[in-house]
Amino acid sequence: MFNIVAPHKPAAQALSQDGLSLLTPTELIPALKLHENWVRDWNVLAQTWNNLPPDAHLKDGGSYRQRRHACFVQTMAANTLTQTPHRAHWQPTDYNALHGGFERWFESVEASAAVAPAWTDLIAGFGKLFAEVQTVDKWFVEAHQFRIDTAGGVGRPTPEGAHRDGVNFVVVMLVARTGVKGGETRVFDANGPQGVRFVMHEPLTTLLLNDARVIHETTPIFPDHADGEKGYRDTLVLTYRAVGFQAP
Fold first, then answer.
1. What single-letter DSSP state applies at residue 51?
2. Which of 199, 240, 205, 202 is nearest to 220 (CA)?
3. CA 84, 86, 87 angle in degrees (round to 5)?
């Protein structure tokens, strides 16, 4: 059973009760207590999505995904966010049957972006919000910049299908959407038939997920032009884990 939109409640309450929260762009700023010039600064930072290298690990043979990756540790008592030395991204096959079970090394997020206040304030703000739902000493955060394009006729935001990530909380924030159709986000109750579905159209629309409670996916995107001109969908995906980074 699908609802068309996610339940509308304060984010921490929705995560606790429903396992997800969908924030509009105007709700994002107060929810994370971001400063008044944050959007201006973020729009500058968003240009770094134009410089993402290809994902060399796609097992379906596709060339539709570009990405960068970085890891951080957020210490709650000290109110600090520290980038770790660059490391591989790893997931068990229980959570990612297609790309799990081996280390995937991606190019790092550009150094200037990873220390920009618009970037660090966003990551820390989500961590503080999630700490309202689950008390922790630290969050082990992985950040992924994604561009999915339709150069080959179709782009697959989640080639692994409906999945969980093996973390505590997940953020999916739309950065840009240009010249595409499709890309419906679907979130299922992990223990029942209930679910929600929607398309994120406006940049800064943000989906928050309690990973233990729900399973999620995004359907393929296609060119939204009769001549098949390439379009793309950019997202920032953040994962927050309380007991260390996933590793073999």
1. G
2. 199
3. 105
Global confidence as pTM = 0.94
2-53+63-163+172-180+192-241 homologous superfamily: q2cbj1_9rhob like domain (2.60.120.620)
How far apart, in Å, are the Cα atoms of 235 and each of 128, 146, 155, 207, 229? 21, 5, 13, 11, 20
Residue 226 has pLDDT above 80, yes or no: no
Residue 109 CA to residue 66 CA, distance in Å, equals 12
Query: What is the rounded distance in angstroms from the CA atom of residue 24 to the CA atom of residue 39?
Result: 13
Query: Over the chain, what is the mean pLDDT?
Result: 91
- Residues 216 and 114 sit within 8 Å (Cβ to Cβ): no
Non-local (6+) Cβ contacts of 111 within 8 A are none
- What are the φ and ψ backbone dihedral angles of 96, each rounded to 5 degrees? -140, 90
**Given this model, what pLDDT does residue 103 score?**
81
Angstrom distances, CA of residue 198 to CA of 4, 11, 22, 32, 202: 6, 17, 10, 23, 12
Cα distances (angstroms) measured from residue 125 to each of 57, 130, 131, 141: 31, 9, 10, 12
Report the candidate in 51, 115, 45, 106 with the shortest Cα–Cα distance to residue 83: 115
Mean pLDDT (whole number) for 2-31: 83
In sequence order, the β-bridge partners of residue 176 are: 234
Q: What is the pLDDT of residue 108?
A: 98
Per the CB < 8 A criterion, the answer to whether 168 and 193 are in contact is: no
Identify which of 56, 171, 55, 69 has the alpha carbon closest to the alpha carbon of residue 110: 69
Q: Are strands 195-199 and 2-3 parallel, antiparallel or unpaired?
A: parallel
